[in-house]
Amino acid sequence: MSEQISSFLNERINAGDFPSAVYLVAEKGEIVFQDALGFAVVEPKRIEAHVDSIYDLASLTKVLVVGLLTAILVENAKMILDESVSKHLRSIVPNEKGDISILDLLRHTSGFQGWVPFYLLVMSRSDVLGEIMQTPLVDEQWELLEELDAVMTTPLPEKPAPVLYSDLNFLTLMFIIERLMDKRIDEVASQLIFESLGLENTFFNPPVNRQHRIAASEFGNYYEWQTCSKLGYFSGDERDWKVAFEKSGVDRFEHKWREYLIWGEVHDGNAWFMGGIAGHAGLFSTAEEVFKIALQFLPNYTTLLKPETCELFRTNFTKGMNEDRSIAFQLASTEGSTAGKRMSPESYGHNGFTGTSLWIDPVKERIFVLLTNRTHAHEIPFVNINSVRRKFHDLAIELLDKNR
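Above: the chain's sequence. Below: its structure in token form.
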């Protein structure tokens, strides 16, 4: 452990940013600092966090599962970065989406909007891909507004940025992988990643007997209900948990909102609707096993990829755009990234909504894992912990540099 890092994170726990934190800092394949702080569960009972506590990784699923699997399939010539998604999805892709490539999905330049509550629009997991393909691209929506600009009473919004982070990108990639492998994404990940690395605490849909080791999340999913309400999916503002399905015709009682403590099941509503198995969220793991997967992105330590394939994760595929992104990851050179001030510009990382993050510095061969459960035992709005992430990285790098 590091007294400085642990002290800082304890301060943030006491300030109410999150009830628990587990961190791990590694260099050249070896763990240097590691500690667990606070309570993984505050209610209905208090359970202390430990270094082997299991966290809902949220969007880290995108890089640790879909990003890594895509790299494996590219290496095996089952996917090509520049090929269009229509090659894999054939007739399901409409004309306006026909030019979207695998690379567009990986670097978030497809034009898909950031988020859609599929659980309000379709009946099952298998319907999600079709709904994605029917969802208008952001550029299309803006062009329609541009045509109407002369008669609009409100100013035209800014033209969408070329890089637009979207869950829909990695859901689409998930469906492509599932078609290629003829298996669900959890089965593919288990076969090609988890079992290969000997992981015992990394999975979708954690076993019930592990609940006492899992960090709890939000009580119910009022955050998503509130988001859906703001986006106009509900009639009225009261928290009555009833949905207006004027267009979909879906029986609203088939899609009940969770009104209990989310503990041991995925927090994300779409992932939960999809049976806990999705490409954008759903993975649970410990800090140490996140570290073991993270090693696969470094050429000198990977056992799942060729060293040259790892270069994809540090390569800027969005030069000159509004955000620097590689394959699946954001690069530290992006203005405002959570990497902090001391990490190499080629470093790559990802955040998770529940309060998790992973950053990898390929130059110094360093890995930084920070797992918190900021959505637990906290009123909305949840605390934006990006400043905590930056300070954590800066502190860790300062200490690593002193130890050299």
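DSSP finds twelve helices and ten strands in the chain.
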